[in-house]
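User: structure tokens for this one?
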Amino acid sequence: MIIRKLEKKDLQETAKFCRMNMEFDSMPDFLFEEKTFLDDDFDPEIALIAEEDNQIIGFMMGVVRTLQTGKCGYIKLMAVKSDRRREGFASKLYDVIHEKFIKLGCERERIYESHPNYFMPGIDPRYTEAICFVERKGFKKFGDTSNLLCDLVTQDFSTDKEEQKLIDYKLIVKRAESKDLEATLEFLKNDFAAWVPEVTRAFQNDPISVHICIQESKVVGFSAYDTNNLNTGWFGPMGTSPTLRGKNIGGILLKRCLADQKVQGHQFAIIPWVGPIPFYMHYCNSKLQRVFWRYEKLLN
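Assistant:
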């Protein structure tokens, strides 16, 4: 077995390898590129292929993010050939990446949830081998989260009547324009700073995939889609000013995005890494789709 760096020429073959060996996920070429080479923090030193007889038998990618709490190393993607598991290939790939994390000054490691450009918010426990692997490597489960699924085909997401009621509060809802970027980011910095990169990315889409609520020329709420895992039906993030909650701003903003995704031709919207499950159930009849376990390993 040899271990080497992922190169551009490997994109299609490695994406296909992931598709064939990640039983519960899809990895089209365009998405693999987004998760690897198009990640602003992509580092070829920690994006590794394991080969045997010129055939891929394992792939693992790490990424380092600088957070307010310090540097964190993420195992962002990993896959081992389904009929070659439990032979130590993942361990060899991980050991190389783990040593690089330490050299780069990471204080902790996590699995998958490499916000803002991430594939999944944790490990789907149906990947039993992966659960066993990370626990053997010293990772500790510290929580879980969920993805919801919203049926776009059977629902009407029109909000004209609901938006009319907001006028009494001098609230206007609209699709964001380029000129709204600065005001939107200013709003995010107060209560939703972690989402600045994703929303900034959505302002680059055509049309801009952000809807905002404005009161007296200030942004007081937003919702977005196609900020991560582009063109796969992912919704979010979204948020409303704490002082204006209870006025249906969030519900309206959510529906406007879902209406856009319906026009795009998606049958379902995926609402990932969900906190307020009842909110989404109420406004768009979303259902739990997948559960993910979150793992962390402290390095200090």
